[in-house]
Design a protein that fits this description.
Chain lengths: 137, 198
Amino acid sequence: MRTPMAKVEDESMTREDPGQDALAAFFAAARAEEAGPSSALLERILADAGAVAAERAPAAVPAWQAPRPAPSLAERLRRAFAPFGGLTAAAALGGFAAAGFIAGLAGGADAWQPSAATFDGPAEAIVAFYDLAAPEG
Amino acid sequence: MTDARPPEPADARLLAQFAAGDREAARLLTLRHGPRIHALARRMLGDAAEAEDVTQETMLRLWRIAPDWQPGDAAVTTWLYRVASNLCIDRLRRRRERTMAVLPDRADPAPAAVERIAARDRAAALEAALADLPDRQRLAVVLRHLDERPNPEIAEILGTSVEAVESLVARGRRALIARLAPRAEDLGYANAYGEGGG
């Protein structure tokens, strides 16, 4: 397709120099012979466009970097008791502790009283202690 | 007669769409401008492989500048021609440096083409004659007479005045006529070279 300006200029050239006619024919032949770009080139250009677009897009977070959901209560308990043998062991330990506590309570007040077996001192020493304290009181 | 096709989106708009992640915009820009840039590079360099490299590099620069493109800037076409022109001239200079260092003698670029009478030969003869022009003169002639760009746009591409472009084109035409005249008879244009027309 020739632009109007090109036509006007070519016409003025032709008036000035007859050789311009031949030159215009050479130009026309060159335009007609022009081979377009290969499809491979166009594909490479589009691949470049894709690569540039990918560089600009926010980087996708890899799976190993993606934030994970908060663990459930059971999961947190499992992790907390893991060093002690896991939940089963912790439950067993708790059970034994509770049983011991109940057994202690079931023993009655005697369990909290010092028995003769636990106080080995002579009874006289106690009486003497009260005797010494009395004048001051 | 009406044209039922929707109007094609402007280059700047397509560029903005590409910058926003629209790959289809890149495809449209490639189909619209790739062939033009390739033709310019082919005519400037006379080498298909180098012309493809220049075309790819020019378009790559367009993709990279897309996010920063301002609507008030030069037309996308003009910008592309400018980039491609500079790349071509750079390659021509490097090629000349290599040629001068290794092979000072120059052979006839297309002796076989001169002997045949066919449109292909004429195109080849013109290409050979263009190769003899100084780089900017050749660029001006190619843009003006083969790509048919208006002089003001060529001035913008070359970074010079319209008057300078007119001068470059006129000198280029005269040089081409002088180079092609001896081959005109072989190429079937003898009469057009002023036999009896002065």
